[in-house]
Design brief:
Blueprint: H1 3-11, H2 17-44, H3 51-59, H4 61-89, H5 93-122
Length: about 120
């Protein structure tokens, strides 16, 4: 076995793209553990779930920053996970690439809309 084929086996390709992808999935999963705990705990403590009360909750700087952090981590983690599923289970290359690009565009648009909504509520625009 040549050294170049050995490199590809151990590091998932010369670009190490697979290794970085794998690490980013783990890092986003780790980040989501405390962020999800914070979100659930914070929402449980709210007495009144009216729009105005939730808007006031989101308008607090710490809450809006952490909420945007949750959104970024969730959407990036979803993007990585969907890409892995598409790469593993969609065999025609054109369909796999189309699925990855389409899902990334949809997730990017949803992330932009979500972050915009938090900004709009936080800054009362």
């Amino acid at each position: 076995m040549s050294s170049s084929s050995n490199w590809k086996i151990h590091d998932l390709g010369a670009s190490r793209h697979g290794l970085i992808h794998w690490w980013m999935q783990r890092i986003t999963a780790l980040a989501l553990m405390p962020l999800s705990g914070w979100l659930v705990f914070s929402l449980v403590l709210i007495d009144d779930y009216s729009y105005q009360n939730l808007a006031n909750w989101i308008a607090q700087p710490l809450h809006s920053i952490l909420l945007i952090s949750v959104l970024l981590a969730v959407y990036y983690h979803a993007m990585l996970g969907l890409q892995t599923i598409f790469e593993d289970y969609i065999h025609p290359e054109w369909l796999r690439i189309t699925a990855i690009i389409s899902s990334n565009l949809v997730l990017a648009l949803l992330l932009i809309a979500s972050v915009f909504s938090v900004f709009k509520i936080a800054f009362q625009l």
